[in-house]
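Re: the request from the purification team.
They wanted to know what the chain is likely to look like in 3D before they choose a buffer screen. I agreed to run a prediction and write the result into the notebook, where they can find it.
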Amino acid sequence: MRCSIAPAKIILFGEHFVVKGKPGLGVAISRYAKVCVKEGSNRVYSTQLGLLEKGSKNRALFDEAIEHIGEFAGKNICLDVYVDSPIPMASGLGSSAAVAVALVHATLGLLDIEFTKEDVRKIAHEAEKAVHYKPSGVDTTLATYGGFLYYRRGEFRLLDDLQLPTDLSLIIVNTGVKRSTGVIVRDVLGRYERIKRVARHIYEAGREIVRSALRAIKRGDKKLLGELMLVNQGLLWSMGASSRQCDELIYRLLDLGALGAKITGAGRGGVVIGLASKGMAKFIVNELIKNGFEAFIAKPEYNGVRHVNSDQILLFS
């Protein structure tokens, strides 16, 4: 048996604006999908979803990934797969990408063939097409390599020298609202076309926020980083990417002591992220949980996908 873990991700700055060529900044976080594989009879079991039947919607990612792994390895593969992913699904955290990357990495390790992380990323990206029609590649890149990623149309750049100040924590809060990324993107682009002369300035401001955020992270300017998150949120709100539930949760985070907060990803649901000092983050998350929210503290994950022990997990025994 071989097991691997791969991290979730958040978009810190720039979502939606990247569609018009502006930059975005993403980071892998310390929430992981774990996948274990062994030779078997094509069964897939999820701790969260149970046994995934062949032909089901939730099974498509696994079958697509195994097919592409077989093409890479030059052999037919028959596996039993166990997946445990506490990453909330369809929430903007890259859950399917983390599962795909962990699955590819574990399987290639089981096959005992030479491979690189880039091989893992490419295969997982192809598998992601079974879930997302045109995946950007941001999620699989961060799940594979970890760390910070600066990205814009035609450019992906891993920022190996960039690290969040160690006395800061990220807070992830699930609104519980499911949404369609495609619908929100179309709505935002529709508003862009209707108010193009104004929207151009909004999107240009989005670019400057990413530049300022990079400088703030390097300098350890916590207050400025929080303020930039709020300004980014304001721009996204103006383009129709937020919602009442997201807005109210952002105000709650700020009232509890967060330095900044915003939507991440498509918006109008999914998760909201906050930034706070380590001590304050624990208090905030405890208060949110007491009030019925699904919330957790995360930190940047700088290592990406990797092998781990099986912890005596028995597949279909």
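For the purification team: Confidence is low (pLDDT under 50) at residues 312-317.
Please add any questions underneath this entry.
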